[in-house]
Structure to design on (646 residues):
């Protein structure tokens, strides 16, 4: 039971990161290698406001807003000039951005771990004297993640903006002819994605893991694996993949060694891609030659 | 510099050999002039050059993006380190060969599933590999020494070389220069090997696969085998480079190969010029003297080098350089050199045409 709740708690973080990667991938076909680092920076900027006496919830809001602004600016400045270039160019640029962000964060806040007081207790519940390995914080974490996922799903499914976003991802030329401002949609995609990523980073930092400049590295890798298992196209696949990786990691952690856990993710990825290279949750699409 | 990158097909192996020999001898002369500190920097740079050669081959010529070359380096380094730790007297060539084979094997393991992946999937998968390899080193403590790492001392300066030096710091000077010379010679050999590989049948097949895989398949090129081969060669180079790097430092720990090293390698390769031989050498030279560059920038901006910002200056500079190069000169220094050369050539041609008229 310990592993299931722990895995679920970790899994929703991976799911959120995977979801944020999928949103960007759908809108601009870029895999954002700096996604984790951008969210980390937003968390630092937002959550260190606690020092000034601002409450946890306001800090969470600040983190998300900062993250969103950051995402939009990044798309405008770094990604926009690269549309139509070989696919290696945006990858290399975002890898460079990752390096810059982590170096800047280390320069400002040092590499020591900061603990952020969680808004809910992290002490496990007890039932008849036995631990159930479920804490109020884990419940909060899962509920927040589910709410965010539902909000994103509702936005894409039921609003005019969501329709425009989907249209410009699916057929940019047609969407443009029908009056959708496709470039603006791409920026909005990045803004949304960065917001979701920032929430994942805040949840991670509020838990026992703490906040440090490279704290999102492993989470990004796991989130990428989750998104890739789902096929990078499918939000549902990303969420399911995240939960799968989170649970698998907890079981490896419990029964083998924490150092082998990253390898477990790769094995899942390789096996999944061997079975269905295009991802488990995507429709098969022919590659144009 | 770019004449090395643009060796044409009809130029023979012989010509290539002369070029590389000349460059290596030049580098050896430089090691005599440089002070010991710069010599050991140059030695590390030569080791990194070998890694970048492999990376440039993989990304530039086969078109497969890898962020995992620090992982391949770690495999080679640990293979060499574990061996050297127990058998300090083994000839260096054998230890390095062992590391190269270990690296190549890891390339095979990563390369085979990777033939089905492309672009960002591949980049992410190799990044995951690099991220998984260092925790693994921490796991098998009895073999790898865990967090503390391994220590060994295999690079002993031969007596005849030592005798050339006099004075108080004879041993220090001799050691620094010997390791630099050794690294330069090994890098020269690998450069020659890669130069030939670039222009071999496999090299041309590789480029065709990169540019148009359907056409390549129609020509009878086995795509999975070619793609895997690219990984194996790149990983063998990275393994050798990583092994040389650790033998020079006489120690290997999990911290030697952080994820940021992959970023550094990518920066150096892009800065030098993707897919060019001369670019790899330029990248290696930049790596050698990056500490000087960083302290220069620190002094220029008045940042205290021991402050937090000063300590992270390298990451900031390298990351920014990577972004700026990719945005404004994606073909790197070698590419810019080539462009200047071409524009000069075409102008000269134009002039001669005008003279005729």
């Amino acid at each position: 039971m310990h592993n299931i709740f722990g895995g679920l708690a970790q899994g929703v973080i991976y799911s959120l990161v995977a979801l944020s990667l999928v949103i960007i991938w759908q809108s601009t076909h870029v895999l954002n290698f700096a996604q984790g680092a951008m969210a980390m920076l937003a968390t630092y900027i937002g959550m260190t406001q606690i020092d000034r006496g601002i409450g946890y919830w306001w800090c969470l809001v600040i983190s998300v807003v900062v993250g969103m602004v950051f995402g939009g600016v990044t798309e405008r400045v770094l990604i926009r000039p690269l549309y139509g270039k070989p696919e290696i160019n945006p990858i290399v640029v975002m890898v460079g951005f990752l390096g810059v962000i982590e170096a800047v964060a280390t320069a400002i806040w040092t590499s020591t771990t900061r603990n952020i007081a969680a808004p809910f207790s992290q002490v496990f519940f007890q039932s008849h004297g036995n631990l159930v390995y479920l804490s109020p914080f884990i419940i909060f974490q899962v509920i927040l993640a589910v709410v965010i996922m539902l909000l994103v799903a509702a936005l894409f499914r039921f609003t005019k903006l969501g329709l425009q976003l989907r249209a410009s991802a699916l057929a940019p030329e047609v969407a443009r002819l029908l009056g959708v401002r496709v470039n603006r949609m791409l920026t909005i995609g990045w803004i949304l994605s960065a917001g979701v990523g920032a929430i994942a980073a805040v949840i991670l930092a509020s838990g026992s893991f703490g906040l440090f400049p490279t704290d999102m590295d492993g989470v990004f890798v796991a989130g990428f694996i989750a998104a890739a298992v789902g096929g990078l196209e499918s939000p549902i696949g990303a969420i399911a993949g995240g939960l799968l990786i989170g649970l698998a990691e907890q079981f490896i952690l419990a029964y083998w060694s924490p150092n082998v856990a990253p390898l477990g993710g790769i094995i899942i990825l390789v096996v999944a891609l061997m079975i269905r290279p295009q991802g488990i949750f995507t429709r098969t699409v022919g590659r144009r030659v | 510099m770019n004449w090395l990158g643009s060796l044409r097909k009809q130029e023979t192996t012989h010509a290539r050999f002369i070029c590389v020999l000349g460059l290596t001898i030049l580098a050896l002369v430089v090691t005599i002039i440089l002070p010991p500190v710069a010599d050991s920097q140059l030695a590390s740079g030569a080791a990194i050059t070998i890694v970048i050669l492999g990376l440039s081959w993989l990304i530039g010529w086969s078109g497969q993006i890898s962020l995992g070359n620090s992982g391949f380096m770690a495999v080679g380094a640990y293979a060499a380190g574990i061996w050297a730790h127990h058998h300090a007297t083994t000839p260096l060539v054998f230890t390095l060969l062992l590391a190269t084979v270990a690296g190549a094997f890891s390339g095979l393991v990563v390369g085979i599933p990777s033939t089905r992946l492309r672009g960002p999937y591949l980049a992410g998968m190799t990044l995951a590999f690099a991220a998984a390899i260092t925790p693994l080193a921490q796991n098998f403590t009895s073999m790898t020494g865990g967090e503390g790492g391994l220590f060994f001392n295999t690079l002993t300066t031969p007596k005849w070389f030592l005798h050339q030096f006099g004075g108080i710091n004879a041993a220090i000077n001799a050691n620094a220069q010997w390791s630099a010379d050794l690294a330069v010679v090994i890098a020269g050999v690998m450069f020659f090997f890669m130069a030939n590989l670039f222009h071999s049948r496999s090299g041309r097949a590789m480029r065709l696969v990169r540019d148009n895989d359907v056409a390549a398949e129609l020509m009878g090129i086995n795509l999975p085998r070619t793609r895997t081969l690219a990984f194996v060669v790149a990983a063998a180079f990275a393994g050798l480079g990583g092994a040389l790097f650790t033998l020079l430092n006489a120690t290997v720990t999990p911290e030697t190969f952080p994820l940021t090293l992959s970023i550094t390698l990518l920066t150096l390769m892009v800065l030098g010029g993707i897919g060019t031989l001369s670019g790899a050498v330029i990248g290696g030279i930049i790596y050698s003297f990056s500490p000087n560059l960083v302290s220069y920038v620190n002094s220029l901006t008045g940042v205290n080098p021991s402050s937090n910002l000063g300590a992270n200056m390298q990451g900031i500079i390298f990351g920014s350089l990577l972004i700026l190069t990719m945005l404004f000169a994606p073909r790197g220094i070698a590419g810019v050199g080539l462009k200047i050369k071409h524009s000069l050539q075409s102008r000269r041609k134009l002039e001669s045409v005008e003279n005729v008229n």
